[in-house]
Amino acid sequence: MARIKLIADAGSTKVEWCLVEGKKKKIVRTSGISPYFLSKADIQSLIKKELASRVDLSSVDEIYYYGTGCANKANALSVKKALQYHSPDASIEVTHDLMGAARGLCGHNKGIACILGTGSNSCYYNGKKIVSNSPGLGYVLGDEGSGSYLGKKVLQYYLYGIFDEELRGRFDLSFMTNPSEILDNVYKKPLPNRYLAGFTLFLAENRGHYMIENIIEDGLNDFFF
After folding, report:
1. Residue 118 falls inside a structural domain
2. How many domains, in total, are found in the chain?
3. How far apart are CA 31 and CA 17, in angstroms?
4. Count of CB atoms within 10 A of residue 162's CB?
5. Do 109 and 139 contact (CB within 8 A), yes or no?
6. Is 194 inside a domain boundary?
7. What is the dihedral of CA 209, 215, 220, 221, to 10 degrees?
8. What pairs with residue 95 in β-bridges?
9. Alpha-helix residue ranges (DSSP H) falling in 1-146
10. Domain assignment of residue 124, yes or no
11. Is the pLDDT of residue 2 over 80?
12. Is residue 175 part of a domain?
């Protein structure tokens, strides 16, 4: 009988789980998991509510979890314990999402792998392991080019009054918010990085406007250079 494997690609905004049994595959998507913002109990609860109802976790033999924040050993251990609660008999590997990107992109070959999601990261992979990468500094100090970074730029243009009348009107219609509510979400409420990344939708909807193109180009230049 084929061993049942569960592979997770976990970001701050969403997690994609792939259950593999022989040639059969099942994809399940849940809310994001960032161990910098969620405790072990929070992660355990999220898995119970959003994954365990759709996947028999007790039958899983192997779990390979590639997650944001899991280069940090304490974070990786927190995620591993949450998974062990639901799959006590499974062998579990929890590692950085960048390793998942490198393995998926490069296989056993050398190469450069990058992640541009809610956050951002990059590395040089030698075909077996990551041998060099820029530190992931998170949405406050880094994450250049990411969803949270670009979303932050959108809010800066809005709050500083840089957007022209047309874009400001479109923003107001799209989000129905105000400066006080924005600052409250960024500084007082949980998961501010996910909140910031939500404003990238405005960029996608308004491609072609020179201010939007400037935000995108500047953000990607900050990532690459």
Report:
1. no
2. 2
3. 11
4. 14
5. no
6. yes
7. 110
8. 66
9. 40-50, 73-86, 97-106, 138-141
10. no
11. no
12. yes
**What tens digit of pLDDT does each residue of 109-147 get?**
999 999 898 889 899 999 999 999 887 788 898 889 999
CATH number of the domain that residue 81 is part of: 3.30.420.40
DSSP single-letter state for residue 149: H
Q: What share of the chain is helix, strand, coil (3-state, %, to 5)?
A: 45, 25, 30
State how far the Cα of 46 lies from the Cα of 43, in Å rounded to an integer.
Answer: 5
Global pTM? Answer: 0.74
Is the distance from CB of 172 to CB of 216 less than 8 angstroms? no
Instruction: Please name the amino acid found at residue 102.
Output: A
Of 27-36, 117-126, 136-145, 210-219, the range with the lowest mean pLDDT is 136-145
Domain boundary among 49, 74, 101: 101
Q: Are residues 169 and 94 in the same domain?
A: no
Q: What is the pLDDT of residues 158-197, one digit of tens each?
A: 999 999 999 999 999 999 999 999 999 999 998 899 999 9
* Average confidence (pLDDT) over 85-91: 93
The parent domain of residue 81 ranges over 4-101
